[in-house]
Design brief:
With about 180 residues, the protein is of the alpha+beta class. It has one domain: Nucleic acid-binding proteins (OB fold (Dihydrolipoamide Acetyltransferase, E2P)). It has six helices and eight strands, in the order H-H-H-E-E-E-H-H-E-E-H-E-E-E. It has a five-stranded mixed β-barrel. A three-stranded antiparallel β-sheet has the order 6-7-8, with no helix packed on it. The longest helix has 12 residues.
């Protein structure tokens, strides 16, 4: 008799085959662990005042490095309550390059900056939490985030609003995204 998969295993299978899940957000599985670390949610950040020290953990959904040498990189984190825009000053980006470029699940410790309804977290420290997801007893460490964060050695890919996939700067039309499993 086969044992039913855990919620985390279902989530990993959904992402591996479809790139999305209809179940709970991956961070919802880790929320209890993150609350013990006093991590804020994206929704909580929106209620905090300007200049407040804050910490947040989320899936890295996009990275951006402007074309000019003096510009600062930024990225977006996503949790079960929303998105967080993170700005990384150049000196921190240079010091924590590995975390900035390789993390799929990241914690950011920084200062909240607010201008009206626009909220940014100015990073003071980055912490790669990708391996930590597995330590919490979940199977999220195996989560396939191909459309969210590029893996080392893998071609960079992103989904455009036109339904086109962009690989290494070239748009490519996706015809069949179905996964085929080999039976043992």
């Amino acid at each position: 008799m086969l044992v039913a998969p855990t919620e985390g295993e279902d989530l990993v299978a959904d992402y591996a085959s479809l790139g999305l899940t209809l179940g709970r957000h991956p961070l919802a599985l880790l929320r209890e662990h993150l609350q013990r670390q006093r991590m804020h949610t994206a929704a909580e950040l929106k209620t905090l005042p300007h200049g407040r020290l804050a910490r947040v953990t989320g899936l890295v959904t996009g990275r951006q490095r402007p074309g000019t040498a003096s510009a600062s990189p930024s990225f977006t984190l996503e949790d079960e309550t929303g998105m967080v825009n993170v700005i990384v000053w150049r000196d921190l980006a240079d010091r924590q390059r590995k975390e900035l470029l390789r993390s799929s699940l990241m914690s950011v410790y920084g200062t909240l900056e607010r201008e009206g309804e626009v909220v940014h977290l100015i990073a003071g420290r980055l912490r790669d939490q990708t391996a930590t997801a597995g330590e919490s007893g979940r199977t999220l460490a195996g989560l396939s985030l191909a459309a969210r964060a590029p893996r080392r050695g893998a071609p960079r890919a992103a989904w455009g609003s036109t339904g086109m996939r962009v690989d290494a700067g070239r748009p490519t039309r996706v015809i069949n995204t179905a996964c085929r499993y080999k039976e043992a």
